Amino acid sequence: MWLVKIVETVFDLDFSFLGIKPISVEGLPGIILFHFIHGDWEHLFANTVPILVLGTSLYYFYRPIANKTLLILMFSTGFLTWCGARSGVHIGASGLVYGLTFFLMISGFIRRDRKLIIISLIVVFLYGSLVWGLYPKYAIENNISWEGHLAGFVMGIVLAFYFRKEGPQREEYIWEDEDDDNDSDTNDEKPYWDVPEPDKDELTVVYRFRRK
To answer: Do residues 153 and 159 touch, judged by C-beta distance below 8 A?
Structure first.
């Protein structure tokens, strides 16, 4: 993203024509390329920090499925935007930001792992306000592609459920019964009929513990 913007600035170019143009053959390359193109430096800065934070979280906590998740989000958000967005040119990585946000937000609660739930809550705290970008009126007034945001929102949740059984899972604690002595001692147990007869003046209670 930064390389594209630097090249545009240095050589006085504008790559926005490579963005998504919905329902047009000309706009097909934009399904992938639109993530890397931004209108200005402010737009680029706005997406850079979330991608660094969310991308790092994805690759640190969900490493086994990070590549698949990122690539699917990149393609699917672009494709859905191409299929259903209003006419115009759609550029920017905000759709990817929404996908990462809601994937991380939902995954922790689905997996019910303490550490992942904490990450989900942190994401809610940091980026919960992104939900405003899903409202068409607010987005249109601020020249924002709410369709790209919606695509990221939907695919983030879909992938959270789809990959719920892959990657990190809830830690399970197995409590094992401890033997009074070594396991070998259990083999030396005498059957109940070998227990010596108690004295007539004493009461003897014999306990037998068996593993299930």
So the answer is: no
